Amino acid sequence: MRTFDEALRELAAMAGADAQPAHDDEHVRWTLYEASLPDPERRGVLQDALRGEANAPLVSAVVTKALELVPDGERRQWVDLLPPGPLRDFARVRATELGIWESLAAGERPVDGPAEIDAWSRWLQLRIAEQLDSVRLLEELSQAGATKRIRRSARERLRLLRAS
Length: 164
Fold this sequence. Notes:
mainly alpha; 164 residues
């Protein structure tokens, strides 16, 4: 495992950037971390950097973004980069809901009804309302979504699906 400084230097070298500005400025580190996420070759180095990163909100932002990009089986290791507490709890829920989202989008998962939908976060409900083509779920969300925005988005998506 690399130290924070070693990982940061390696990430900077991989990106063709200077490590010193990244070391001194969290905004530069965010840019470096964000640029590293899409590249599976850099993710191990990135994880080492995040283990030494002192800025917890920055780590949380990177982890949350990583959860969208990595396969389901790798999400736990990203969540575990966060210290126990609210940031990790949030990331754990997001990782779980991304798994739900992916299985729904692939048509691989049935929904157990309104009680299950009520347990989903507003983020997941809105994502489904805006992106999924399941008439059954959209009808449910159009009636019982957690917010007006979710209900309106589900109704609009249903309208578009029925018009096509």
